[in-house]
């Protein structure tokens, strides 16, 4: 006599179970993609997103269109104990960069500022402290930008060279409309970028 397994399901029911399983897997995959995409866009913004930002906020410098195979390098939170080493690497590769300066780190590092200017690199304004500029009151941010600007002028005057440009990069890289109006009123161009290491958001493991 043939034995019928109690665990064996009818074909119709098996197909239904299989469809439910596939639907569950598809839902989980969709959820995973939806969770990953925002982080991907933040940490590796696609060119189309940068193009949109440039159209949305044309007063902010994100990138420069060119047919040449070149990039614009920027170094934040200068001067620091790493400035000399960074300059050495840049000089070895015949490269230049814009160093965005934190005012509270400039005193006592005048030699680093001299070396940056002598190398042909630029000095930019990164406010007085390593903090999110967006969280500062307008009056405080204006005062900080002005003070760092004064220090930058002194550094260029010491080298008998004019300031190349008035660039400001907000701490942590975030801005709002009030900041844009303030920076524009002060005669500065806000500079962000199109490729980020996100060191302001990711703490060092060392």
TrEMBL record:
Checking Pfam families in the record gives: Polysacc_deac_1
Enzyme Commission identifier(s): 3.5.1.41
Which GO molecular function terms does the record list?
chitin deacetylase activity
Q: Recite the UniProt keywords alphabetically.
A: Carbohydrate metabolism, Chitin degradation, Cobalt, Membrane, Polysaccharide degradation, Transmembrane, Transmembrane helix
Q: Which Gene3D superfamilies match?
A: Glycoside hydrolase/deacetylase
Residues passing through the membrane, by range:
21-43
Query: Which InterPro entries does the entry mention?
Result: Glyco_hydro/deAcase_b/a-brl, NODB_dom, Polysacc_deacetylase_ArnD
| Protein known as | chitin deacetylase
Q: Which organism is it from?
A: Colletotrichum higginsianum (strain IMI 349063)
